[in-house]
TrEMBL record:
Topology within the bilayer: Multi-pass membrane protein
Membrane-spanning ranges: 21-43, 55-75, 87-105, 111-135, 147-167, 173-189, 201-229, 241-261, 282-298, 304-329, 341-368, 374-396
First-listed, main subcellular location of the protein, grouped into a coarse class: membrane
Name used for this protein in its record: PPP family 3-phenylpropionic acid transporter
Pfam entry (one): MFS_1_like
PROSITE patterns: MFS
One Gene Ontology molecular-function label: cytidine transmembrane transporter activity
UniProt keyword annotation of Zinc-finger present: no
Localization: Cell membrane
Keywords from the UniProt entry: Cell membrane, Membrane, Transmembrane, Transmembrane helix, Transport
Major facilitator superfamily (MFS) profile domain location: 20-396
Length: 402
């Protein structure tokens, strides 16, 4: 190839990489805009149809319980047949359609049925989008946090805007926002290059999970995620009730999530530098310690102004944890099982761990109050630090630099 042709080829490659970056960033922005409308504000809808604390805890356990089964299965399908984009496209559309039926639901039973169906499709969205971003980041030597931070931006803006819309038109508006955001996400997805798919896997479709669970560093990480990430998911559900309990408003909940999730974006970008200096393991440990301390502090009923002023705690805990966790999974599992490994991680954190924290948190709230729910989350998150400590200092400590 001549010099001029080589230069033109490199320029075209650079433009293609830039387009892919923009499309993946847009995908994250849209997906988490939908999640930011749904997750932190759905409790307002549950209260509007007069559900009890125990019912809210039970309903909130459905999505993580379903994801325990469906996330690994979606991962196995994607890794076996390399159809990540097609599966993600279909599940985004299906979730966007199903969520609109919530506008007609008025009973506990109707919500259970709809949330079960929604959870089957929604459980595929995050692990598959993460795997596409990780594949792009690996190919172009880009930290995962630089892509994932756009999800935090979408979540932050949506929580504020949707909170204001709820004050104007009621809690059902969040379902329309969710549906529109997921449909928009499919438009970005269609323009992501197919070279993020990777190589086809020829192994048995059921052998992958067994192989992953034989890796001690990965298994310990999963047990840590069960408690730490499970508590984070429960916080997303119960925060709006907590914030109003300590004197805040519904609009204030949106502002709080704007600040909280907004702090995740720069921290996810900063996480790349921190992990290079400290390593992934110590970054995860630091994030877990900050997160645990935060839940204990919330249980003391702090002033709403102080909660807002210390918004950056979310970035230093959840932002660091999510950015480091995805890279930890990638570096400690086989490349041919990337989606499966991410799905198993989500199943433990957003699945089993969230079932545990959501359900028990709802019972604690009904009988003892929302402040004791956060005390419970602090205790649960503290238990999650034990396996992370074993990763950092135990016999499975990595001997070479991360």
């Amino acid at each position: 190839m001549k010099h001029g042709q080589t230069e033109q080829f490199l320029q075209e490659q650079g433009k293609a990489a830039s387009r892919a970056y923009l499309m993946i960033s847009g995908l994250y922005l849209a997906i988490y805009y939908g999640i930011g409308a749904f997750t932190p504000l759905i409790a307002q809808y549950y209260h509007s149809i007069h559900l009890t604390g125990t019912q809210i805890g039970l309903i909130s356990s459905i999505t993580p319980l379903i994801s325990i089964v469906t996330q690994p299965m979606w991962g196995i399908i994607c890794d076996r047949f390399q159809v990540r984009k097609r599966v993600l496209f279909l599940t985004l559309l299906a979730a966007g359609l199903v969520v609109l039926f919530f506008t007609r639901a008025q009973t506990f039973g109707q919500v259970i049925v709809l949330l079960t169906i929604l959870s089957v499709f929604q459980s595929a969205v995050i692990p598959i989008s993460d795997s596409l971003a990780l594949a792009y980041g690996k190919k172009h030597n880009m930290p995962f946090g630089n892509l994932r931070m756009w999800g935090a931006v979408g979540f932050a803006v949506s929580a504020l805007v949707t909170g204001l819309l709820i004050q104007l038109w009621g809690p059902k508006v969040l379902f329309f926002v969710f549906a529109a955001a997921f449909v928009l996400a499919t438009l970005f997805l269609k323009k992501i290059p197919d070279d993020t798919e990777g190589a086809r896997l020829h192994a048995s479709i059921f052998s992958g999970i067994g192989s992953l669970l034989k890796i001690p560093r990965f298994t310990l990480f999963l047990f840590g995620a069960f408690f730490i990430y499970g508590a984070v998911n429960a916080h997303n559900l119960y925060f709006s009730l907590f914030y109003q309990h300590i004197g805040g408003s519904v609009a204030g909940v949106g502002l709080a999530f704007l600040l909280f999730a907004g702090s995740e974006a720069p921290c996810m970008k900063l996480a790349a530098m921190i992990t290079r200096r400290w390593g992934l393991e110590y970054t995860l440990l630091t994030a877990g310690i900050i997160s645990t301390a935060r839940w204990f502090w919330y249980s003391t009923a702090p002033n709403t102004l102080i909660v807002l002023l210390l918004f950056f705690i979310q970035g230093l805990s959840i932002g660091f944890y999510l950015a480091a966790a995805a890279q930890y999974v990638r570096e400690n599992t086989p490349g041919t099982l990337q989606v499966t490994a991410l799905a198993v991680f989500m199943s433990f954190g957003q699945g089993l761990g969230a079932v545990f924290c959501d359900f028990l948190g709802g019972i604690v709230m009904q009988y003892f109050g929302i402040l004791q729910t956060y005390l419970f989350l602090g205790l649960a998150s503290g238990l999650g630090l034990i396996p992370v400590l074993l990763i950092c200092f135990g016999p499975w400590k990595r001997q070479t630099a991360s």
